Amino acid sequence: MNYTDLFRVTLPETVLEIAALLVLVVDLGLLRKAALKVRLAVAAALGVGGCCVALWALALSAGAGFGVSGELPMLYQSRFAMEAQAGILILTALTLLLLFDSIFTKHIGEFVAVVLMAAAGGLLISAAQDLLVIFIGLELLSLGLYILTAFAKTSGKSAEAAMKYYLFGGMSAAFLLFGFSYFYGLSGSTNLLQIQWSIAQSGASPLLYLAWILVVAGLGFKVAAVPFHLWAPDAYEGAPAPAAAFIASVSKVASFALLITISLNWLVHNGPISGDRTAIEHALNQYYQTWPHLASILLVIAAASMIVGNLAALAQVSVRRLLAYSAIAHAGYILLGIATQRAYTGPETAFEFVLATNAPTHRTLAAVLYYVLTYGLTTVGAFGVIAVVERATGSDRLDSFLGLHKRNPVLAGILLVLFLSLAGIPPLVGFWAKFNLFAAVLGEHAGTVPFALVCLAIAMSAVSLYYYLQVLKRAYVMPAVDESPIKVHPVVLAVLVAIAAAVLLLGIFPTLLGKWIEGF
Q1: What are the two backbone dihedrals, phi and then psi, of residue 51, each rounded to the nearest 5 degrees?
Q2: Are 122 and 80 in contact (CB under 8 A)?
Q3: Is residue 41 a contact partner of residue 93, using CB atoms and an 8 Å limit?
Q4: Measured CA angle at 154 (ends 245, 382), to 5 deg
């Protein structure tokens, strides 16, 4: 076991853990008697600093891997993993900056430390290549999310949401472990590449489909896909706003990165393509015949998520719950992209297909990653605006946004940009996220089913525009009950303006992010 490799590949996670400990020492030791605003500013600044150092450490760990005794890697810093991790660190930093002027807890050091440790779990998941490492990372992330949801100790909704989240999370962990155990039984290994190769050699079996269903069920809880979504509306509504922003962004990026890793055809990128051509070609053909059946399960969940999420959002009067059902719908769009990775279809042999392309899933997965990162950025900003309005009015109901353009024009403008981007209106980045994803799906598959699902996704996107406009209608059209100005902390306002500007800039120049992502 080479501990130098282990240290290098886990350097970003190590930085975050050190930053979490530093926050606790400073807050509970040096600043115990300081004013809450001072403690909050220092803790948030240390947390953001830790994220920035972790980004630098991420660059140093590029291409690093770690295995045991020459075995296949348990952790590997591929370009895809690094891009997902960079997104997690940036979104974590933005979430911490939204803490300024927060009043939901006095235990600010503990809150920041838990955020950083949960983010470290997300980083671990993104680079994991082994079932054991995946489960450890998931539990580190999940336990942090449960704690963050319950952090508003004076709120009954927060406690109720955390309990529901914890119970559903426990069930999802059980499903996931059952699925992992069957994968181990099929292959005799916990390494993802070895599992894929064993399945390719032996072909599909009923136990394989059962294992895949259990794993999809477990991860479906994490991404809030139908029918595993029931925890999401309560968690989004009851959690403190920064915690809800973290759940809606960082948790989604990490969970989808894991789902991409598990579903990705690793044989194309890393599998053995040397040796006996006949044996390898037979194994590849076996695998390519298996994947469409596995993907069909994801397609059903994607369609259900798009329909249920968008239609249920129409009936919401809480903007937080509206965003929760919107997140369920967005999970359906993303799952559509993951499920339509292009497998081998001929006419060349599978062996020639691998040698010629070496990355048949590149376009679709690039579009998926683009979607996940831009959605996370937009959602953090949306929860930041909701938090400001909630502090001013005491509620997150639709009517709390009445006359927002008169009470704070800048805040109303930010809300306009973010919600229209979530709806997919050009020239905002949300439009390009959906356009690239749907175009990639149609480009990879010319069949009736992918075309019908893309049409369904477009129709559901039109439905989503209605409930986003309900919020904007109250902010810009309907008269205000109270026209007193809403004050925003300068740091929070600067962060929200920066997020809105990024959403607009990336929409006008979509290749800025697109070319960076396509490098994986």
Answers
A1: -65, -40
A2: no
A3: no
A4: 20
Q: Could you give the angle at which helices 108-127 and 36-60 cross, rounded to 10 degrees?
A: 20
Residues 474, 317: contact at Cβ < 8 Å? no
- Is-contact 339 401, C-beta < 8 A? no
CA distances from 424 to 153, 308, 436, 458 (A): 37, 18, 11, 10
Q: Per-residue pLDDT averaged across 240-246, rounded?
A: 91
Binned at pLDDT 50, 70 and 90, residue 29 comes out as confident
**Residue 91: C-alpha distances to residues 8, 130, 294, 350, 379 (Å):** 23, 25, 31, 40, 10
- 170 vs 12: CA distance, rounded Å: 28
CA distance 155 to 238: 8
Q: Which amino acid is at 342?
A: R
What is the token pair recorded at 279?
């044996």
Model confidence at 102, pLDDT cuts 50, 70, 90, reads confident
Calpha distance 273→144 (Å, rounded): 41
Residue bearing tokens 């300068």 = 490
Residue 227: cis peptide before it, omega within 30 degrees of 0: yes
Residue 457 CA to residue 465 CA, distance in Å, equals: 13
Residue from 11, 14, 44, 12 nearest 26 by CA: 44
For residues 443-453, give the mean pLDDT.
Answer: 76
pTM attached to this predicted model: 0.90
Give the closest residue to 192 by CA, choosing from 129, 263, 138, 255.
129
**66: phi > 0 → left, psi -120 to 50 → alpha, else beta; which?**
beta
- Give 160-170 pLDDT, tens digit per residue: 999 999 999 99
Is the alpha carbon torsion for 452, 453, 454, 458 positive or negative?
positive
Which H helix or E strand runs over 65? strand 65-66
CB neighbours of residue 318 within 10 Å:
17
Q: Say yes or no to pLDDT of 71 above 70.
A: no
For every residue of 386-397, which 3-state class applies, written as one string?
HHHHHHHHCCCE
Amino acid at residue number 308:
V
Helix (H, G, I), strand (E, B) or coil at 425: coil
